[in-house]
Every structure is written in C-alpha cells, then in structure tokens.
Amino acid sequence: MLRALDLIDRGIGAVLRPVLFLAMAALIVAISLQVGSRLFFRALGWTEEVSRFLVIWITFLGAALTWQQHRHIAVGVLVDALPAAGARLLRIAACVVAIAFMVALVMVGLEYMGTQGRQRSAALRLPMARIYAVIPLSAALMAWFALSDLLRILAGKDVAAQGGTGQ
C-alpha cells in the first residue's frame, strides 16, 4: 500500500512541478509585457489581470507541492520534547485536523465557485469560477497528502524524516 501511495504522490508532484514552472514563466512574460507596454506604448490592460490570476494559482498549487515535499514551516518543539509514542500520536492528530480542515476548504471552495462563478473578469471576461477552482483543487490535493502522511505514520514510517516524497 505504501508503494502505491508513493507512486501516486510522485505522479501528482510530477504534474505540479511543470505546471508551476510554466505558470511562473507566464507570470514573468505577463509582467514584462505590462512594464514594457507602459514604458514604450499604451498599457495592456489584460496583463495586470493575468498576473493576478497566475499569482493566485501559483500560491495555491505551490502550497500543495510544498505540502507534498514536507517543506512547510513546522514548529517541532513540542513533538521533539515528547517520547516517541507521544510524538506519533501528535503527528496523527495533526494529520486528522489537517484532513478535516482541507475537506472543509474543498466544500467552501466549491460553494464559493458556485456563488461567485457567474461573475466574469473585467479585462479577459473569464468566468471567475475558473479562477476560484484552484481553492477546492489545491485543498483536495493537500487533503490527499495529509491522508497519505497519516497512512504512512500508521504504518510506522517517519514522514518528517523523509524530506518529501516527490524529490
């Protein structure tokens, strides 16, 4: 089972990394066009909107990739002070709380997509549901990674020392 989890986690990471790379490259191009058009021509109105939407997507998907690689900031003072059994229980509790929060965020994100989704962006006229879709998507990915970590902990594997499954 752990082998299957590793395979799925690596697959998700293999998709997220190039998507984020391309989004960052597109962001650089959009901002360069914005600056260049303001200096030399008339400002291109759509570049500001594209930049804003790319930053939103990069932030949420980057958070999911960071979770998968176990690179989020963590304060381990309490976990380190506990004996092994206590630290394991605390890690299990943290995973359960994270899963519950991410599932709630998926539901809220889907609801938000529904209520605000009929709105269109000012310059590009994109349905805002496409922009807000990153909320439930990234929350679902992070819930998966938390569940994956929980299953590894229950199987006796130390996920904190692992340094990330997608590296």
Account of the 3D structure:
- α1 runs antiparallel to α2 (45-68), α2 packs parallel to α6 (134-154) and α4 (84-116) packs antiparallel against α6.
- With 167 residues, the chain is mainly α.
- The chain is elongated.
- The mean pLDDT is 91.
- The chain has one domain (2-154).
- It has helices at residues 2-40, 45-68, 77-81, 84-116, 128-132, 134-154.
- The two termini are 20 Å apart.
- 76% of the residues lie in helices and 0% in strands.
Note the run of SSEs as H and E: HHHHHH
Structural class: mainly alpha
Range of strand content? under 5%
Our measurement of the CA-to-CA distance between the termini, rounded to an integer number of angstroms, reads 20 Å
Average of per-residue pLDDT values: 91
Approximately how much helix is present in the residues? over 70%
Flag low-confidence runs: none
What's the story with the biggest beta sheet?
Answer: none
Total helices: the number is 6
Q: Please, how many domains?
A: 1
Number of strands: 0
How large, in whole angstroms, is the Cα Rg?
19 Å
Give the overall form. Answer: elongated
Give a topology summary:
Layout: H1 2-40, H2 45-68, H3 77-81, H4 84-116, H5 128-132, H6 134-154
Helix pairs in contact: 1-2, 1-6, 2-6, 4-6
Summarize the structure.
The chain has 167 residues and is mostly helical. The protein contains 6 helices and no strands. The longest helix has 39 residues, at 2-40.
Summarize this structure as a short list of keywords or feature phrases.
167 residues, 6 helices, elongated
